[in-house]
Structure formats: structure tokens, C-alpha cells
Design a protein that fits this description.
Length: 298
């Protein structure tokens, strides 16, 4: 019984898709207000280095960073797929399908992460912040999976749906666990420092390394004029900014959302929160100081 070979058109499509997957793997998949991030950054462990240095978001599983190397299978298996269709003249099968599945899973993570970063900067939003390489990679993944075998429709559908579902589920679970950190309620904790927003920002601009040593994981009461508010049904953030474009951003406890919604830009308020630290952006020439578990002081 002869083995069915891919048609000339299928060979060309798989080859082009695999080449696109390889090239796009090294190109930016997202741009977060001037901060570019490529697929390779997840594979080489640089993803959370970028998010921590720019948005004070650290890897929730730092001891498992080595596991990210599995995403190097994307360019590796894409290359193997080219060899199969062009040299062996057979369907690439699992080689193409696994490469495609990894692309879809990783693309989902980048999209979810990009959507969450909008609280730091209004210019970060879907779909604009996702770059051409992200869209091309997703298209390449669809081709690699659909042309991995001549038939097997149910398997192909599973490989299209499962990576996205797993990525969404994992991202949601990690996000929820971060939101439900086992910490004492902010209102029950004594404030370590009380300061105005302008004075705090100035302190970080003079030396954020010194200021971080002083304030990180400390309860701080900050008084300032609201420069920006962002609220949904269950989340709320509030900013105090200075003339340099530097700002503090407070992520409020869920039960504080109704009270925050009643505020307006220009109001003077005092916020009590746990300091996550400050990050200076050389690109934007400004400091961002992040706080979590925030509550409004009466």
C-alpha cells in the first residue's frame, strides 16, 4: 500500500508556513508602549526579565524558568517539517502539528498578557499592540496543523482548540492566585511611611534602587491629586502623576471598587497600599511606582 504524498501546493504551503514560523519566532510579537517582546524571549527566559524591569511583574514560578526552553521546539520542529515535505516528500505529521500547537498556545499567552498590561498604559491594547509577526505566526500554525496529515479532522480540531484552552486556563489560574495572595488586609496593617505623591516620586527619581530598598513590601500612605482612574466592575486602579510623566499606580482591593468609582480626576485623596517597587524606563524617561492591595483612607 503506497503512502499518500502531499500535493505540490501543500508542500509549498507547509514550507512557507514553517519558514514564516521560524523567522517570526525571532521578531517582536507584541509592543508594549515601546517595549518589544518576541517569542524567543519566552524560550530563553527573558520574558519575565522584560516584564519585571518595565512593569514590576516577576515570574510567578522563577524556579521553573528552565521549562520555557520547550518553546525552542517551534523553530526546530518547523525546520524538520520543511525537511519532511521537501526532501522525504511526505506529510510532516506530528512535527508540523506540535510546532503549530505550541505557537497557538504561546500566542494566546502573549495576547492575554498584553490585555492585562493596559492598566499600566492606555496605549497598550488589543489588537493594536500585537505585531505582524504574531498574526503571521498564528496563520502559520493553522496551516501546519491542518496540513500535518491528509485527513484526521478530529485530531486537527483538537490540536487547534486544546493549546488555546490550556493557555487560557493556566493564565486565568495564575492571575487568580496572584490576586488572592494570602496577605493580611491592608486596613489592619500599620503604615510604615506616610508621604505625598510628589515627594515619593521625587525620591524614586533621585535613586530608585535606594528607594526600592526603603519601600518595597512596606505599607505606605500616599496623598496626591488623582491624574487617572481606570475602573471595571471588579477592578480599579488610580494614578498620581508629576510633571515629568512619572507616576504611582495603585491596584485596589475588590471591595474598594465602588468607592473608587465615585472619585474623579483632580480629587485629592490618601491611599494606603503595599509597595511593589519602582521601575525607571529609559525609553519613556519616567518612573512607575506600583502598589497593590490598595484602600482609600477616609
Amino acid at each position: 500500500m503506497s503512502i499518500k504524498q502531499p500535493s505540490t501546493a501543500e508542500k509549498k504551503l507547509v514550507t512557507v508556513a514553517a519558514l514564516a514560523a521560524i523567522v517570526c519566532f525571532f521578531l517582536p510579537w507584541a509592543n508594549w508602549a515601546g517595549v518589544s517582546i518576541a517569542a524567543k524571549d519566552m524560550a530563553n527566559g527573558n520574558f519575565f526579565t522584560v516584564t519585571e524591569s518595565n512593569y514590576a511583574i516577576a515570574n510567578p514560578f522563577p524556579s521553573m524558568v528552565w521549562a520555557n526552553a520547550i518553546f525552542w521546539l517551534i523553530p526546530a520542529l518547523s525546520f524538520v517539517s520543511i525537511l519532511f515535505v521537501m526532501l522525504r516528500k511526505t506529510y510532516a505529521g506530528w512535527y508540523a502539528a506540535i510546532a503549530g500547537a505550541f505557537i497557538l498556545g504561546l500566542a494566546t499567552v502573549y495576547a492575554c498578557f498584553t490585555n492585562e498590561l493596559k492598566v499600566f498604559n492606555d496605549s497598550i491594547k488589543l489588537p493594536n499592540s500585537l505585531q505582524a509577526a504574531w498574526y503571521i505566526s498564528v496563520l502559520a500554525a493553522l496551516i501546519l496543523i491542518m496540513l500535518g496529515w491528509p485527513k484526521k479532522i478530529l485530531l486537527k480540531l483538537l490540536l487547534l482548540i486544546l493549546p488555546v484552552a490550556i493557555a487560557l486556563g493556566a493564565f486565568t489560574q495564575i492571575k487568580q492566585s496572584q490576586m488572592n495572595e494570602n496577605v493580611d488586609k491592608t486596613s489592619a496593617l500599620k503604615s510604615d511611611y506616610s508621604v505625598t505623591a510628589d515627594a515619593l516620586i521625587k525620591e524614586f527619581l533621585v535613586s530608585d534602587s535606594v528607594a526600592n530598598l526603603k519601600y518595597i513590601n512596606k505599607i505606605v500612605e500616599v496623598t496626591g491629586i488623582i491624574s487617572e482612574l481606570n475602573c471595571t466592575d471588579t477592578t480599579a486602579t488610580l494614578n498620581f502623576a508629576d510633571s515629568t510623566g512619572s507616576y504611582t499606580i495603585f491596584d485596589f482591593e475588590k471591595e474598594q471598587v465602588p468607592a473608587v468609582k465615585r472619585l474623579q480626576v483632580g480629587n485629592k485623596v490618601t491611599v494606603k497600599a503595599l509597595c511593589s517597587g519602582g521601575i525607571y524606563s529609559d525609553l519613556l524617561e519616567s518612573e512607575t511606582i506600583s502598589f497593590k492591595h490598595a484602600i482609600l483612607k477616609p
